[in-house]
Task: inverse folding
């Protein structure tokens, strides 16, 4: 607590798709083990290091256990502000890593082996809550940033824009955002699927289910203050009095599914799709700019322009403030995606130098 903590950055390399294989694309990304990955292609030969690298054969469970996600859940219960976000080129597997198959619904749930970081974290959170015997109050809020509008994905009726405010005590926050309490795994998974189905998606040349918005699902974890009484035959020793005076703690676990970066020439987007792509890319550019400045030593940092986009405002606490953050960079190994893959790898490498003070 209060010590400088680096962002934890892990990399996931998705398999080549059937289309890429038929087209004759070459695999240009190779895992070297020990958190290193090598990119080898014409005029490009580079090695990058991360906290962990998951290659095409890695299971969803391996990503959950190897990324440090379980520890992040425990820290949220302990009262810390925790964030995990997935990013990469459109179609590189960010949403799959967080949620699992896109076709799942309450009527057709995904196979347990394919569930993503979100569902596995929910299970872990509820198991931890029960094993600790702690009296936790859990609630969830879910929003998307679409064309620079913040919209609630859990409120009934068509999504409408909500104002983004700032205060000295809370920092940036969304006004009138709905927060729904839950007590079971079924209830929170239902909220996740309901909200995800309302999120804006479209098809283009690189992705049949391209996310057209950034989505943030936040789990609020509040441990109610414990007023314990001594067990029969026990007096109020040091342990009893400490437990009786235990203050309530409030932690958060925020999952951020960033819309993939896009090159309009590659996706074939036009009209509304093109407007959406430009909005996505502008906000990702603002995020990249903030990360570049935050990666500098604290004494050499200039003003961090969080106000440049709605996305950076909402992630300000996670990136440069008092939070604990895990970043999952997702890339394609295809030679055709080399430019975007290198961009993601450089972006993720810069993020490894960012520190916060939880």
Result:
């Amino acid at each position: 607590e209060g010590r400088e903590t680096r962002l934890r950055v892990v990399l996931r390399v998705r398999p080549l798709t059937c289309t890429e294989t038929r087209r004759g694309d070459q695999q240009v990304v190779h895992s070297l083990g020990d958190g290193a990955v090598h990119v080898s292609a014409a005029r490009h030969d580079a090695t990058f290091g991360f906290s962990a690298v998951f290659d095409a054969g890695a299971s969803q469970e391996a990503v959950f256990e190897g990324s440090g996600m379980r520890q992040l859940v425990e820290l949220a219960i302990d009262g810390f502000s925790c964030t995990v976000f997935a990013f990469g080129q459109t179609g590189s597997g960010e949403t799959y890593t967080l949620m699992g198959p896109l076709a799942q619904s309450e009527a057709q749930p995904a196979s347990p082996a394919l569930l993503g970081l979100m569902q596995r974290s929910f299970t872990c959170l509820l198991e931890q809550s029960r094993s600790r015997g702690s009296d936790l109050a859990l609630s969830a809020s879910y929003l998307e940033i679409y064309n620079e509008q913040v919209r609630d994905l859990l409120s009934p009726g068509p999504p409408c824009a909500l104002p983004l405010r700032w205060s000295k005590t809370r920092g940036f926050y969304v006004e009138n955002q709905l927060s729904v309490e839950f007590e079971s795994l079924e209830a929170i998974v239902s909220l996740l699927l309901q909200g995800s189905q309302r999120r804006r998606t479209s098809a283009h040349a690189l992705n049949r289910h391209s996310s057209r918005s950034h989505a943030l699902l936040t789990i609020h974890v509040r441990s109610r203050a414990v007023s314990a009484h001594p067990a029969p035959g026990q007096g109020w020793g040091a342990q009893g009095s400490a437990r009786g005076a235990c203050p309530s703690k409030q932690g958060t676990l925020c999952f951020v599914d960033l819309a993939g970066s896009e090159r309009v020439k590659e996706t074939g987007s036009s009209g509304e799709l093109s407007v959406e792509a430009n909005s996505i890319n502008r906000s990702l550019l603002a995020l990249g700019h903030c990360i570049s400045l935050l990666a500098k030593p604290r004494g050499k940092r200039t003003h961090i322009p969080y106000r440049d986009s709605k996305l950076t405002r909402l992630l300000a606490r996670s990136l440069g403030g008092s939070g604990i953050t895990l970043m999952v960079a997702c890339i394609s190994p295809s030679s055709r995606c080399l430019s975007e893959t290198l961009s993601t790898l450089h972006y993720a490498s810069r993020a490894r130098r960012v520190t916060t003070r939880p």
About this structure: The longest helix spans residues 272-294. The two ends are 5 Å apart (CA to CA).
